[in-house]
Amino acid sequence: GDKAFAQFLTDEIQEEKKIQKHKSLPKVSGGWELEVHGTEAKLVRKIAGEKITVTFNINNSIPPSAEEDAQEQQKPDEQEPELTSTPNFVVEVIKDDTKHTLVLDCHFPEDEIGHEGEEESDIFTIREVSFQPTGEADWKDTNYTLNTDSLDWALYDHLMDFLADRGVDNTFADELIELSTALEHQEYIKFLEDLKSFVKCQ
């Protein structure tokens, strides 16, 4: 059984490498520096007196509906539809001279993706906003967190503009999806390779 499993994994790895779009991770325009730690990626950008970091994790970033559609609609000779990784991401804005970090928790609403032609709509939304002490690894549940569900739309628009002014806009979000999808695929291939070594290990 293990031999067959290892053979299956070998074929699967070859297939995945064939459809791999990016041999190296795509860049995000606008002077963002990328750091990757396993499944977590961090983009960092410094502008006058501020540091902006955007963090996301590719685990569980592929919407479940995409995987089901892929299995149902596939005819034997068809290429599998591309799976896209749309992770939640957290934007932190740190001003040099304050002890607080503004934290905006953003996500890609599932129903928004793929609706092209609607120029006006943003492809990501802000879910929560809070202040956290700068430099502390653990955020406190005791800090007030603003949920945007019931937020005054004018304030919400200002928050979106605030992000856009710092380079976090639709273009950035598109590039983040591309980066995340490439990273997810790279990690998936690595996982298959590790699994193969594990299965073959006697």
From TrEMBL:
Keywords: Acetylation, Adaptive immunity, Apoptosis, Cell membrane, Complement pathway, Cytoplasm, DNA damage, Immunity, Innate immunity, Membrane, Mitochondrion, mRNA processing, mRNA splicing, Nucleus, Phosphoprotein, Secreted, Transcription, Transcription regulation, Transit peptide
Subcellular location: Cell membrane; Cytoplasm; Mitochondrion matrix; Nucleus, Nucleolus
Biological process terms in GO annotation: apoptotic process; complement activation, classical pathway; cytosolic ribosome assembly; DNA damage response; innate immune response; mRNA processing; negative regulation of mRNA splicing, via spliceosome; regulation of complement activation
Presence of keyword Transcription regulation: yes
Residues covered by region (Disordered): 59-88
Gene Ontology cellular component list: cell surface; extracellular region; mitochondrial matrix; nucleolus; plasma membrane
Membrane-protein topology: Peripheral membrane protein
Molecular function via GO: complement component C1q complex binding; kininogen binding; transcription corepressor activity
Primary localization: membrane
Protein family per UniProt: Belongs to the MAM33 family.
PANTHER family linked: COMPLEMENT COMPONENT 1, COMPLEMENT COMPONENT 1 Q SUBCOMPONENT-BINDING PROTEIN, MITOCHONDRIAL
Protein's recorded name: Complement component 1 Q subcomponent-binding protein, mitochondrial
Provenance organism: Copsychus sechellarum
